[in-house]
Amino acid sequence: MAFVSFSTVFVSVMLFTVSPVAGKTEKTEGDTVEFTPAEFTVSITTMEWTHVDKSSNKIKAIKWDSRDQSLNIPNPRFKKITSIDTKTGKLTIESLTKEHSGQYKFELNGETKGEFSLEVSGSKEGGFTEAKRKGEPFKKEEGQEVSFLPKDFAKATQSMIWKHIAGLDTTRVAEWDPKDEPPVTFHGQFRNIASLDETTGQLTIKNLVEEHSGKYTFYVDGVEKETFILVVSKRLPIPTIERDTGNNPNIVYLKCNYDGSGHKDLLIIWSNSTQELRTMKPEEHDKSFIVEKSNNPDNYYTCSLKSPAGRETSLKAYERDLFKESGLGEGAIAGIIISIIILICGGVGAFFYKTNSVFHDLIHDRFSCLRGNAPAPTETNANVNVPLRNSPSSTQPADGD
Ligand SMILES: *[C@@H]1O[C@H](CO)[C@@H](O)[C@H](O)[C@H]1NC(C)=O
Question: Is residue 271 lining ligand 1, measured as CB closer than 6 Å?
Answer without folding.
Answer: no
